[in-house]
């Protein structure tokens, strides 16, 4: 290499003693190259340069120069940076995994604590065939006469080998065709049901396996809530851990409910067809398999047509699965099963009582009790008469009143239920409106309001003003729409004046009213109801209302209503005997109760319940809820307390039916029947009306002397005027003395 190959040396033209010159604004100033060729002189008349701009300098090659030496320290630094970045990524992933595990664990702990902690435990394998097996019950009336035999009919325990193959196959075709192909929970079935329901916009298909249905039937309630569903899945999983598929199917066939009080396929075969399960035909097996889905609604004694329609679908499923041939299906479709006489037995007007008494007997004797004999408090004559009166009255008044249902409940003086009529026809509707229905009592609730006010010191002769009132945004009005002005508290109850009832509720206070009704046995109200309670806005049932009125009948003593007199095994071993209380359970002062009963007697004799009067001392109160949806009358004599409700199940308003109308008429007819053999008597415990207590005023002597002086002076003045009468002037009257 020689000096001519080196780049030329460039001199700096700037004097080092001068300060550096600032570049002009805009583009940076290009340094002057003395070796560069001078550009040609610019033509002042040329408008633009014709030559293109010079090409850009070549881009230097990327990467290190071949002559650059290797730097190991730089390579190590790069490796450390890469490792640090990888560590951050792995740490983040580990943290996310930990958070996910904690979230899943926390969620599982929450689900277990909230939903699964109290899941029932499974008994032993053999005990599964008897767990929660309700007893059979023979019911007797108060006189010892048999009313009916009730309770589950289980039949004989069957095995899969003791019945034709098409019997279990019919149930699999109806409930779980993939039973032998999935576990306790059918994930595929859940997905299929979700898709079908989503497309249909509503629930059209379920996904419960046969094992889940068995778990629900044995251990759980039928409530459709998340907790019950999760517990059902857990129990199904546990069942499949301890039983084989065949054992689960056998247990299902022996314990599933078929309606009409019948459990198990053999019990259903005996009840509906009068034969054992081993003799069932294909058509009968398919018909029985249609029932577990809705055993009450599809019961063969209630809706045979719908059950037959479902059985045809089951037969089609059996043929599709290859479990029966097309010829067998055709034969089964032509062979319509006939019911036996046992299935057609009718409990008549005692159905509502037996439903209620069965539940009460199981509470006392337990789920796994032996077969029982239960003697009831029911008077068969009053039960039949009450049901007939309700039925006749509603048939006569249905068109005029717009009411379709009624209920009646009657208690004797000791709290025994003598009649319970839950509707117009048990066969059409077993719903017990005397116990299960909660409706607004209207003004029939006012005696409790007045009782609380009397307890606070209000007396029947106290004056209250019937006038427009307003409490916040609420302005209660009277039924008639007008106002009567000042009246006594007693008159306000007799005429059922709403404004004064609300005023008395305000005086007594919500807490005092809530406490009083709980003492009287009404438990459906909150501890401190608002003022609308004075007009019966809170829903109650007829049994509690009637029992609450019995406190008035008994002079302030609370008696718990009861329907079971005794329980024994069918072998004669006693289990339960009702015992009257050893001492009175007083919940209300007898003096205040006397005041209340006297006012309520005038409601019947002079007030809104005149139609209920039947020639005996009686007290009570009418009630009508808002928009005439409910009409009530609850009244009592010294011997019976009876309540009547009239309305519609769908809460449709009636044609202005009030408590003093149809309910009072039903009450009167029933009470006349109940008192036929009883002597006329008044309430023996009533106290005389309280008399005003007065104490002598020490000033009485002074006022008596002053009064005597006035009388003497007036007498002397009168004598003087009689002796010397003033001359009367024409056209001017004689002045009259002020005395």
Intertermini distance: 159 Å
Instruction: Give Rg in angstroms.
Output: 47 Å
Structural class: alpha+beta
Mean pLDDT: 83
Kindly state the percentage of residues in helix: 25-40%
The CATH topology of the domain at 154-342 is Penicillin binding protein transpeptidase fold
**What CATH architecture of the domain at 154-342 would you give?**
Orthogonal Bundle
What gross morphology would you assign? extended
Count every helix, treating DSSP H or I runs of 4 or more residues as helices.
Answer: 20
* Largest sheet data: 5 strands, mixed
Low-confidence stretches: 22-29, 728-739
What share of residues are in beta strands? 5-15%
Strand numbers in spatial order across the main sheet = 2-1-3-8-9
CATH class of the domain at 154-342: Mainly Alpha
CATH homology superfamily of the domain at 154-342: Biosynthetic peptidoglycan transglycosylase-like
In total, the number of strands is 12
What's the arrangement of secondary structure elements?
Layout: H1 72-116, E1 137-140, E2 146-150, H2 166-175, H3 187-200, H4 210-219, H5 226-242, H6 245-255, H7 265-273, H8 282-289, H9 304-320, H10 326-334, H11 351-365, E3 372-376, H12 380-401, E4 405-412, E5 417-421, H13 446-455, E6 463-466, E7 485-488, H14 489-494, H15 498-508, H16 510-519, H17 542-553, E8 564-569, E9 574-577, H18 590-606, E10 619-624, E11 630-636, E12 640-647, H19 662-674, H20 700-723
Parallel strand pairs: 1-3
Antiparallel strand pairs: 1-2, 3-8, 4-5, 4-12, 6-7, 8-9, 10-11, 11-12
Helix pairs in contact: 2-8, 2-9, 4-5, 4-6, 8-9, 9-10, 12-19, 13-15, 13-16, 13-18
Biased composition (Pro residues): 51-67
Domain Penicillin-binding protein N-terminal: 1-142
GO molecular function: penicillin binding; peptidoglycan glycosyltransferase activity; serine-type D-Ala-D-Ala carboxypeptidase activity
């Amino acid at each position: 290499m020689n000096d001519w190959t080196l780049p030329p040396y460039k001199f700096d033209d700037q004097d080092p003693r001068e300060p550096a010159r600032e570049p002009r604004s805009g583009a940076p100033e290009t340094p002057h190259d003395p070796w560069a060729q001078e550009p040609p002189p610019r033509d002042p008349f040329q408008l633009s340069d014709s030559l293109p701009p010079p090409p850009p300098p070549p881009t230097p090659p990327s990467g290190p120069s071949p002559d650059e030496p290797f730097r190991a320290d730089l390579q190590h630094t790069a490796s450390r940076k890469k490792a640090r970045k990888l560590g951050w990524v792995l740490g983040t992933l580990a943290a996310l995994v930990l958070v996910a595990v904690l979230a899943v664990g926390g969620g599982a702990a929450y689900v277990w604590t909230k939903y699964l902690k109290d899941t029932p435990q499974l008994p032993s394998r053999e005990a599964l065939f008897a767990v929660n097996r309700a007893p059979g019950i023979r019911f007797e009336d108060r006189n010892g006469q048999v009313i009916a035999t009730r309770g589950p009919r289980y039949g004989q325990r069957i095995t899969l080998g003791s019945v034709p193959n098409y019997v279990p196959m019919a149930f699999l075709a109806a409930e779980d065709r993939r039973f032998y192909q999935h576990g306790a929970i059918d994930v595929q079935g859940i997905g299929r049901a979700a898709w079908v329901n989503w497309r249909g916009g509503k629930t059209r298909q379920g996904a419960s396996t046969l094992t889940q249905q068995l778990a629900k039937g044995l251990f759980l309630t039928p409530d459709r809530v998340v907790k019950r569903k999760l517990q059902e899945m857990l129990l199904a999983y546990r069942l499949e851990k301890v039983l084989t598929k065949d054992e689960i199917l056998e247990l299902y066939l022996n314990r599933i409910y078929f309606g009409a009080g019948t459990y198990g396929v053999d019990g259903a075969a005996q009840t509906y067809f009068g034969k054992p399960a081993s003799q069932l035909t294909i058509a009968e097996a398919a018909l029985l398999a249609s029932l577990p889905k809705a055993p009450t609604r599809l019961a063969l004694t209630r809706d045979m047509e719908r059950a037959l329609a479902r059985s045809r679908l089951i037969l089609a499923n059996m043929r599709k699965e290859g479990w029966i041939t097309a010829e067998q299906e055709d034969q089964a479709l032509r062979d319509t099963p006939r019911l036996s006489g046992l299935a057609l037995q009718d409990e008549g007007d005692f159905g509502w009582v037996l439903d209620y008494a069965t539940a009460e007997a199981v509470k006392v004797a337990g789920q796994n009790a032996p077969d029982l004999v239960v003697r009831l408090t029911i008077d068969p004559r009053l039960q039949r008469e009450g049901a007939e009166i309700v039925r006749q009255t509603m048939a006569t008044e249905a068109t005029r009143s717009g009411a379709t249902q009624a209920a009646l409940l009657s208690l004797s003086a000791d709290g025994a239920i003598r009649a319970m009529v839950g509707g117009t026809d048990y066969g059409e509707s077993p719903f017990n409106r005397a116990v299960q229905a909660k409706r607004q009592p209207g003004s029939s609730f006012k005696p409790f309001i007045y009782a609380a006010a009397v307890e606070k010191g209000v007396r029947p002769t106290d004056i209250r003003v019937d006038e427009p009132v307003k409490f916040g945004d609420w302005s209660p009005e009277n039924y008639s729409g007008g106002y009567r002005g000042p009246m006594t508290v007693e008159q306000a109850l007799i005429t059922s004046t709403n404004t004064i009832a609300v005023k008395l509720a305000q005086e007594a206070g919500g807490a005092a009213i809530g406490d009083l009704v709980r003492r009287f046995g009404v438990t459906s109200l909150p501890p401190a109801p608002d003022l609308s309670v004075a007009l019966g806005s809170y829903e109650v049932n007829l049994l509690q209302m009637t029992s609450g009125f019995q406190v008035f009948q008994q002079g302030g003593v609370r008696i718990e209503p009861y329907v079971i007199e005794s329980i024994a095994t069918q072998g004669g071993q006693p289990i339960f005997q009702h015992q009257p209380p050893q001492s009175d359970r007083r919940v209300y002062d007898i003096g205040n109760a006397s005041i209340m009963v006297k006012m309520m007697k005038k409601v019947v004799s002079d007030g809104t319940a005149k139609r209920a009067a039947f020639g005996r001392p009686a007290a009570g109160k009418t009630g009508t809820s808002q928009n005439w949806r409910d009409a009530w009358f609850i009244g009592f004599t010294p011997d019976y307390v009876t309540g009547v409700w009239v309305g519609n199940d769908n809460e449709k308003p009636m044609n202005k039916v009030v408590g003093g109308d149809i309910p009072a008429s039903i009450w009167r007819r029933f009470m006349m029947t109940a008192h036929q053999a009883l002597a006329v008597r008044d309430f023996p415990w009533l106290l005389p009306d309280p008399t005003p207590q007065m104490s002598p005023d020490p000033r009485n002597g002074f006022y008596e002397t002053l009064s005597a002086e006035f009388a003497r002076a007036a007498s002397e003045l009168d004598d003087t005027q009689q002796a010397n009468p003033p001359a009367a002037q024409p056209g001017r009257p004689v002045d009259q003395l002020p005395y």
